[in-house]
Design brief:
The protein is of the alpha/beta class and 622 residues long. The protein is built from 22 helices and 21 strands.
Amino acid sequence: MTAILGISAFYHDSAAALVIDGRIVAAAQEERFSRIKHDAAFPAQAAAWCLSEAGISQDQLDYVAFYDKPLVKFERLLETYIAFAPRGLQSFSRAIPVWLKKKLNTRAAIREGLGRSELRTPLVFMEHHESHAASAFFPSPFEQAAVLTLDGVGEWCTSSLGVGSGNTLRLIDQLMFPHSLGLLYSAFTYYCGFKVNSGEYKLMGLAPYGTPVYRELILQRLIDLKPDGSFWLDMAYFNYAAGLTMTGPRFHALFGGPPRPPESSLEQRHMDLAASIQAVTEEVLLRQARYAQARTGMRNLVMAGGVALNCVANGRLLREGPFESIWIQPAAGDAGGALGAALFVEHQLLGKPRTLQVPDAQGGSFLGPRFDPGELERLLIARNMPYQRFDTPETLDDEVVGLLEAGKIVGLFQGRMEFGPRALGARSILGDARSPAMQATMNRKIKFRESFRPFAPMVLREHAHAWFGIDPAHESPYMLLVAPVLERHRTPVDPMAQQVIAVDPDLRRRVNVVRSAVPAVTHVDYSARLQTVDAGRNPVLHRLLTRFHARTGCPMLVNTSFNVRGEPLVCRPEEALQCFEATEMDVLVLENLVVRKDRLDAASLQQARSARARYLERFELD
């Protein structure tokens, strides 16, 4: 037996992953245990859980693999500060003490984090983009593939092109810091008032409300883009290389003012900026993909890195790009680096053979903790929470489908928790996609988040092509592709009304216009972020959707993550119960146990109202 523990830590989205004899046994982000969103701390709890899930001790580990090379990253930091001196003095004075205290001695920090200062297991340090590339290629269903990784920055590399074949991986081209597509996108994220390293998906969701009027200005002034997708950024407009902010005065002057304060009103200018940087990002990705195909001659492409979570760009790449098939690592950001590091040691360094798996080796990305129904039942009894137990899958499905049909919002907690940022049906909140009121209700009364944010459909894979612009041969099991709603399912909007809606500053009125037969999952540009559901990866959801389709003629449901704004996805049943109580969720399904809010007694209802009041104090809803 060869057991390898992969670790990513100290920047954002720390995680641990365990690979035994080439099989992905367990993987989880630290945030799910610590309850600190995007937790950067050493993933001590995640690592301990991975070992517990496998039933092994630290002494049985053959290797611990870290996802980047801290000393090389420190070298980049010093060289950058010297190059920009004296402008980076304030940033330098903040960053260096952290490096001297912890990050320079990552070996000791890993041993301390694992609680074993005397641990003798060999520690292996990967290059950051090697970890990303390994996370994309080795779990993929392809014997050979081109590999693209794109993010903010690793050590020096910001984007790489490689080739994967069998059990080997080779990087052949790289772009280097400070020229970074991820940091360019994050600069606009910051400028539009969202948090860097977590708000990029908000910027992507905002883009359809705008038009790309600044696209040419960005291409003329900020980025010198070449035909092969390589580029140079004019650093006179940016401050991230040595400062404490992403953008500088010249950037602000170019786009009409200072950055938007977080939580302040969104202007049409911000929506147009979001649309513009999204258009530029898609153009860069398309050019890089065309170059990758020409350079490698491969028919298949795999991707990882934070930019690979841009599902709008991914959708265009699938429809317009040169590759026949694309596979994207579900945990494409830094969390997935832990898995990539472990797999890189297994296959690349140890030379262990790689066995292709269909549809992939990721197991639906259901790699986290699971809980026994008996444990869940004991929790409900201890909390004096009325519930109903269903002893067969058929009776449970009938109950849940009936509730969804009636417009109820259902929290679903079943099986192993997802690895990666997307809820895929294990820790999900579900609703009827046909309901015109569902999006507004979920955003404001369940998620406590911005009104413009779209929701995704989970759709039976065998019916996806009948509703969305996706080829029947393709799939989107990890919610990483956007596709248009087909014309025949769209609802015409009066042209005069459309003109008024298009400039309405209240995004709630824009988003609530019925545009299709499934308005809850149709964005303002008639797009949807798909999750295709198949029986192999997710038999429980496939069975539920099949029953819903038989009853309603609609093969999809709204699927959003089981959490509220500012909190990680729920991991334990206690967190699911708390979220259920504190929001206006109607139903909670814990495996085969169903709790309905309309059947709670007076004491339980009062407890839920108190929990909701505490939650509402934390959020300023737009």
